[in-house]
User: Which sequence fits this backbone?
């Protein structure tokens, strides 16, 4: 059903998904792949400076990014603390002293990727629903 929304000369949705994900991992616009997603660390631009795609459409648009980041970070934290518990003989405070900085560094590093992935998810949702402004390139 989704593929019927695409014209015959447009790329398939699967191809668009892969291209879109590659672009956001490089922190570029999911639509054109040229414009930058961020103007500084973890600060999403309002729109693409090349094709005009609006990244931040309304207040709270990044709420999904926050949930994605929180979920992945909590899974990472659980993995770190389980690994420390299984493979070391650290006590609770030593484990916390070693694990907490690792988890905080991961959270800090993952935030832009989370925002980029959420921007891609919103863009792909717009394509699938046939939004007129979403034109895969
Ligand atoms: Zn763009």
Assistant:
């Amino acid at each position: 059903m989704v593929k019927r929304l695409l014209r015959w000369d447009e790329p398939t949705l699967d191809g668009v998904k892969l291209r879109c994900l590659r672009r956001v991992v490089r922190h570029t616009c999911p639509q054109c792949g040229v414009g930058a997603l961020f103007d500084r660390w973890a600060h999403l631009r309002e729109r693409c400076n090349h094709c005009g795609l609006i990244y931040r459409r309304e207040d709270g648009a990044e709420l999904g990014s926050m949930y994605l980041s929180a979920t992945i970070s909590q899974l990472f934290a659980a993995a770190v603390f389980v690994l420390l518990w299984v493979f070391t003989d650290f006590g609770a405070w030593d484990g916390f002293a070693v694990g907490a900085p690792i988890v905080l560094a991961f959270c800090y590093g993952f935030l832009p990727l989370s925002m980029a992935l959420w921007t891609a998810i919103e863009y792909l949702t717009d394509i699938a629903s046939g939004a007129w402004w979403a034109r895969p390139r």
User: Anything to note?
Assistant: The chain has three helices and two strands.
